[in-house]
Structure formats: C-alpha cells, structure tokens
Amino acid sequence: MISESLERLRAAIPEGVALVAVSKFHPVERMLQAYDAGQRIFAESRPQELAAKVPKMPGDVQWHFIGHLQTNKLKLVLPYVCMVQSVDSLHLLEAISAWGKANGRTVDVLLELHLGAEETKQGFTEEEILSILASEKLDGIRIRGLMGMASNTDDMAVVDGEFDRIESLFLKIKSSGREGFDQLSIGMSSDWQLAIRHGATMVRIGTDIFGPREY
Predict the structure, then answer these.
(1) Which domain holds residue 135?
(2) Which of 13, 31, 171, 195 is surrounded by the fewest CB atoms within 10 Å?
(3) Please, which residues have CB within 8 angstroms of residue 146's CB and are 6 or more apart in sequence?
C-alpha cells in the first residue's frame, strides 16, 4: 500500500528533509493515492508526461522537474514547476533565466553536479559551478543549491564517496554566505539513508513509494 510506504518513510526521514515522490512512469491513480496519504511534492522527468499529469492532480501539488530538460521544452515545464532540480548546462540556465524574465517569474533551480562514473550522466564540474556562482547574477532564476545522481552501483563505498564530494561543495558554497543557497538534493530509493548522513535536504524516492514502474 502506498499510504503504508509513505508512513514508513516519514517515520524514518528526519524533520527538515523533504520527501520528493518520484512519480515518473506511474499513473495518476497511484499518485492520487499518495496525495490522499498526505504527499504534496512530486517529481517528473519528462516534459510531456508532466504537462499531461498537472491538470489531473490537485492544484496544491508542488511539482519538481528532475530530468534532462531541453530548451525547446521549457513551455511544457516552467509554467507548472516550483523547482527545476536538474540544471546541467549554462545554456539551459540562461534559457530558464530568459523565460523567467519574459514571464515575470523567478524560477528556483538546483545546479546538477556530475557525480556518477557513467559518461552519460549530465551535469557540471565543481569548477563550472563555482564559476557560475561567481559570475554576474542572472535575473529570472534563483539558484537554491545542488543536485546529484550517484553512480548506478551496489557498492555503497562508491556512492558514499560521491555524496561526500557534493556535500563538501555544497558546504563550501553555503559557508560563503550566498543568500538562499540551502538545498541539497541527493539520494534515491537505493541510497537515501546514506544521502541523509551527507546532509541531504531533499531525497527523491520513487520505487519505495510506488513500487516498480508500471510503464
């Protein structure tokens, strides 16, 4: 039962850590079960799927986008989300900034640090993130923190090292006094407990809530 899964997770996740329900590939019917059990933050990774689900869910849902976002798909995502967690290029950051200015919005974003060993993983290097934060401020966006996806491995020592990397960078930036920089999104169903030990303020959990993907 989804409600029982959420109850177990909430009992284990410390206060102050947001539970982000990763609802990608799961039908609205199951999402509504989670909503009825009190879940309000949902995350999607495909623009078309997000846009199709928004009108079918209650209006107080807080939508996050966590997938690779192409600039030609911004209109399917930005009107609905309260945060884009997966900003993985300067080109995308600038496009979101331009959309925010044009639409009178300030979009909360996280910069994605390339963590995993896989070359297919998206994201910035540490140096690129520090350079972006040191450069001139972009209007229409608010950089709230960092996001990372660990390597797809059963070796928790590898994941631990990657989470240590992103935590160190997050604390370095936060300690510099940057205003509003307070979110660290790491951890999924397989490693969220470890993520919390590394200072996660958000954990992105799908399977442990909804079970295996249905499509």
Answers:
(1) 2-210
(2) 171
(3) 110, 111, 112, 113, 129, 166, 169, 170, 173, 183, 184, 185
Give the CATH number for residue 84: 3.20.20.10
What would the pLDDT profile of 5-46 be if each residue is shown by its tens digit? 999 999 999 999 999 999 999 999 999 999 999 999 999 999
Encoded amino acid at 43, one letter: A
Classify residue 44: in a domain, yes or no: yes
Cross-strand pairs, 184: 146
Assess contact for 62 and 39: CB atoms under 8 A.
no
pTM, entire model: 0.95
In whole angstroms, what is the distance from residue 108 CA to residue 142 CA?
A: 5
Structural domains counted in the chain: 1
Helix, strand, coil percentages for the chain (3-state, nearest 5): 40, 20, 40
Please name the residue that has the structure tokens 């631990």: 160
Cα 177 from chain centroid?
Answer: 22
Q: Is residue 215 part of a domain?
A: no
Could you say which DSSP state residue 55 is in? G
Rounded Cα distance between 143 and 181, Å, is 7
In a domain, 56, yes or no: yes
- What pLDDT, on the 0 to 100 scale, is given for residue 119? 64
The token duo for 121 is 């993983």
* Model confidence pLDDT, tens digit, residues 172-202: 999 999 989 999 999 999 999 999 999 999 9
